[in-house]
Design goal:
The chain is of the alpha+beta class. It is built from 4 helices and 8 strands. The protein has helices at residues 16-27, 42-51, 107-115, 129-133, and strands spanning 4-6, 33-40, 54-59, 66-75, 81-89, 95-102, 119-125, 140-148.
């Protein structure tokens, strides 16, 4: 049984990673489990660093309320991936905007982080058909099971 499930440790402020780990440790009893599904963005970050900014657009199927999505990816001074998306509604000039700042974790980095914070960590590569069908297969996706010692 898994006691805490997370998909993202967001770098919202300087101590966010430490605060998240502290919250997880406080929330779990000894022997409790944490499940993480992590997407390693390091290849995208390398590409963005080479080109400065990566921009792309996508047109959605007719049944979607949005016609286009414009995306801009950059890297901030802390090495985090900054993803900005603009969605343009179909038959309207209305737009919606989202911005995500993503800290990328490799398998090694996440294992070291939780190991030094009192967890026994196992990592499994994620090869689910649904992830490949969703187009997320360009990045390495892995699952972390961490048991609080």
């Amino acid at each position: 049984m898994v006691d805490v499930v997370m998909q993202l440790i967001s770098p919202l402020y300087d101590a966010a990673e430490n605060d998240t780990i502290a919250w997880i440790k406080h929330s779990l009893k000894k022997g409790g489990y944490l499940f993480l599904e992590i997407e390693d963005y390091s290849k995208i970050i390398e590409g963005v660093c080479e080109d400065g900014v990566l921009r792309r657009w996508e047109e959605f199927p007719q049944e979607d309320p949005f016609q286009y999505m414009l995306q801009k990816m950059s890297v901030d001074i802390d090495g985090n991936l900054v993803v900005e998306k603009w969605f343009i509604r179909r038959n309207s000039s209305e737009r919606e905007y989202f911005k995500n700042v993503i800290q990328s974790y490799t398998k090694q980095k996440i294992k070291e982080l939780f190991s030094r914070n009192g967890f026994d960590v196992t990592i499994h590569l994620c090869e689910d058909d649904l992830l490949f069908q969703s187009g997320r297969s360009g990045n390495e996706i892995f699952r972390v099971i961490a048991k609080k010692l």
